Amino acid sequence: MNNQQESRPTALITGASYGVGAATALSLARQGHNVALTATKCSNLDKTRSAAEALGVRVATLELDLTAQASIEAAVDQAVAELGRLDVLVNNAGAHGRKPALDITREDWDAIFEPNLTGTFFLTQKFGRHLIEAKRPGSIVSITSTHAVRGAPFRLMYGVSKAAIHQVTQMLAIEWAPHGIRVNAVAPGRMMTDSPTRQQTANDPNYVEAMLKKIPLHRMPTAEDCAAAVTFLCSPGAASITGQVLLIDGGLTVQGSAS
Fold it and tell me: Rounded distance, CA 7 to CA 245, Å?
């Protein structure tokens, strides 16, 4: 470790093993951030860790279960212990659910809301407390979804959980502004990523063409598009931006659709 590495800003990115999380971690690393990467299993982070270390930054890999408060506390404490500080939090990890509203059970509901809302909030709280106690400014960006701003069938749980994060974003932006902590969100539309949940549709040319016809730009966003938006919101160029939700959807929601 050298002084230059120690003085770099440090970002904690959840769900960093693939997709938007991995792309964001590498984008921030290219901008000189040390990175704390989280996943449910550290072994899932090997590829992202190697790519980040190749960029010359310090990297920590942490196991994180957003449904367990002890895991949240331990992950943040370990990140600070290994990297010395935290300046940026990217809330990317979460659960997806697709089910008719009449079939949703309490167990289904909890399986989505525990990580997407409850866990995300308490991780953000822990991160915010770290910054406030250290008397340092910082930036928080949560990855949400166009389903948070437009209706769609069978996505009630997921959409409502992400819409709640939009409100958390606005509330915390006001409450933590006196501490110099900026809080924003990025809401991607249907993307082309290497996420396991996207592989079936990404490999279906009929599905892809049908989606492209709905998108005014005739282009599906990528994980790198989303990562670039997050990186901007964490940069000095976004110093006056807080409480905002940036949609990355090729114009999809402008014409009234979420998917």
Answer: 30
